[in-house]
Write a structure and sequence with these properties.
Oligomer: single chain
Number of helices: 11
Strand order of the largest sheet: 1-4-5-9-8-7-6
Number of domains: 2
Number of strands: 9
Strand content: 15-25%
Structural class: alpha+beta
Bound molecules: 3,4-dihydroxyphenylalanine
CATH superfamily of the largest domain: Bira Bifunctional Protein, Domain 2
Order of helices and strands: HHHHHEEHEHEEHEEEHEHH
Length: 346
């Protein structure tokens, strides 16, 4: 190859490379061109490697031409690379631009379920009176659900709390009342005791607007020396007033529970009409709210607490009933059907 031929060859290569670079539209394509001309086996690289075989007199000029060619291709490549990079960035910025003035997407925020709301409220009221929260299993034995609560197998009070039995054994059932937790707490702790036990209970009930086979109760138990019925009344009266946020009167009516003696039903003045009589209280002016009484000495003996030294009171209330009253809900099934139109109202 003489000098002229070499020069032509280099010129041809450079103009081919530059026009290919000029017309490529992607960074990948550009990189391929770089490899094609300047890579280790690239067209220009191979030519430069062959310089040694050229005529000695022409070699320096040829070397210079080769380097100039390389520089031209490199410059053109770098210029195009910057251009493509910036164009890509601009395009991406336009595509991904955020309109900070556009209205945001709203994510619906959930609600605390009305039963959980009233449960927390009850817990915090009793907490302020020094009660702590205790817990017990929902799958129970009939010992904790009945026997230990002074309700032996033949006792008619068992009929009112027919529940669900399991195939784990004839005495394993779903608890029908949270009173079971009284026994578990007294077995494991020494008096004085002051607890409440919120939780789920079960009964074999036909479903209607007032009844459901699953519902919730809050149990209360206080054991100490010289506990009086007056203290029971004071405690529950303070509770009712805090729950309804009104200075409502309370009254006791005699009742029967196997595990309390004496036992009572606690009524509160109707918080909706302040005792005057309305639709909610059926014109009576009073609402029946919960069961309570002084813990039966038999129950204390059963858990090894000396009834001569200690006494106490207990109470139990249905959460659904309280929530229905407080929030004016007329059908218990609303609590369990997860209908947002209902739940969102609380
Ligand atoms: N366990 C009772 C029930 O489910 C409610 C109850 C009444 C609980 C009197 C008590 C109590 O602790 O003293 O009907």
């Amino acid at each position: 190859m003489d000098a002229k031929e070499f020069e032509n060859k280099i010129d041809g290569l450079v103009s081919a490379a530059l026009s290919a670079i000029e017309s490529t539209a992607s960074l990948d394509g550009l990189e391929n061109l770089r490899l094609q001309y300047l890579g280790r086996e690239g067209e220009l690289t191979v030519i430069l490697r062959g310089l040694a075989s050229l005529d000695k007199a022409f070699r320096p000029t040829a070397g210079q031409l080769g380097n100039q060619a390389k520089q031209k291709i490199e410059q053109s490549h770098e210029g195009k690379r910057k251009y493509l990079y910036e164009a890509g960035l601009t395009e991406r910025m336009a595509r991904e631009a955020i309109d900070v003035t556009a209205p945001g997407a709203r994510y619906p925020i959930g609600h605390v379920h009305p039963l959980s709301q009233i449960s927390s409220e009850i817990i915090s009221i009793f907490y302020s009176m020094g009660f702590s929260v205790a817990d017990g299993p929902e799958v129970e034995t009939d010992y904790y659900n009945f026997d230990a609560l002074n309700t032996p197998a033949s006792h008619p009070a068992r009929d009112e709390q027919d529940t669900f039995y399991t195939n784990m054994g004839p005495s394993v059932l779903l608890r029908s009342q949270t009173s079971t937790v009284q026994i578990r707490v007294m077995e494991n702790n020494k008096p004085p005791l002051r607890i409440i036990a919120p939780g789920r209970v079960y009964r074999n009930e036909e479903v209607n607007a007032r009844k459901y086979p699953l519902f919730h109760q809050v149990e209360g138990l206080l054991i100490d020396r010289d506990v009086t019925f007056g203290q029971l009344k004071g405690t529950l009266s303070a509770f009712i007033q805090a729950l309804f946020k009104k200075p409502l009167k309370v009254r006791f009516r005699p009742d029967f529970f196997p595990f309390t003696e004496p036992s009572a039903e606690l009524d509160s003045e109707c918080p909706f009409c302040n005792g005057k009589g309305c639709k909610t209280c059926g014109g009576r002016g009073w609402l029946e709210l919960l069961g309570c009484g002084m813990v039966d000495p038999n129950v204390l003996k059963g858990v090894g607490i000396d009834p001569e030294e200690f006494s106490g009171f207990a109470f139990g209330m249905g959460l659904e009933r309280l929530a229905m009253l407080k929030y004016d809900i007329n059908d218990i099934r609303n609590f369990y059907t997860n209908d947002l139109r209902f739940l969102e109202q609380f």
